[in-house]
Task: structure prediction
Amino acid sequence: MILSGPGVFVLRAKPGDSLTLDWASVSARQPSFIRVWYGETLVEEAFIGAYSPHTWWQGNDLLGRRRLQIGSLLKIELGDGLKMRIEGDLEQIN
Result:
């Protein structure tokens, strides 16, 4: 799934074989930011430099120490010019 900022996107964890958030990456042509809420908790806030992609994976998870639960919501706020690619058991609901 690819998200383009600026904007706020709401994703829901859907049932799957593994129910995981496998990988996420963001990049921008200009300095920007990302904020991610898992439920009501802010779990990630990062400044993204121009042409400096940032990637999350299992050892550096976007959710921190939380585990993805069926039906749980992620709210992702992307700054201007930011693109994000996410791979995992999620569906966009807005």
